[in-house]
Amino acid sequence: MTERTLVIGDIHGCYDELQALLDLVGLTADDTIIHIGDMIDRGPKPAEVVAFFRDTPNTRTLMGNREDKHIRTVDGMMDYNPTREITRLQFGDDDLYHDAVDFMRTLPIYIDLPDALLVHGYYEPGLSPHHQDRDVLLGHPEGEERLTDGGHDPWYVHYDYDKPVIFGHRDYPFLNFRNRAYAIDTRCVYGGRLTGLLLPDFIPYSVPARDDHWSTLQQRYAHILAG
Q: Is pLDDT of 148 > 80?
């Protein structure tokens, strides 16, 4: 059997949906699981998601803008905002949280596979993956401003690398754009779906969210959000 790779969209702590997606696809020990970034924030089980990708063989994950913000916060470059404070509390132990952040520091900002390029956020045409701006790849506002300065078309319209790109970060109005750009953040944490693409054939799989998780967390941690 050909070795397969399942590329999964933004999970945001939706651990139960992750397991449901893996059950649906029916992977073997020879297959690989790669997450597109944003393991954490706004969902119910961030610690379990981090532990899965840190400890499970044949798994990898990109850094997303959420992981990068936690790193910057721990390093004193950003203040804790309510969302990151909630995630820290969900770990239940500061040592476990800081161990998770140390794992996040090791994550790549792109993965170049034989069949596809994987990024979390955006990609700037005309540059190789190695020369991309970090804020562009991670989907930070500064990266989006760099790409939209002057009112150009969306970045994926002019995507020009020599293989398709798979990305997450935001809810695009398509899954497949011209067989060149695949958007797989389908908003599980907000009550949407968790989606993956099975390579090498780019077969989509998805499972429904079990809740509007962020709305539920907002109710549970209303005292932090109000503060």
A: no
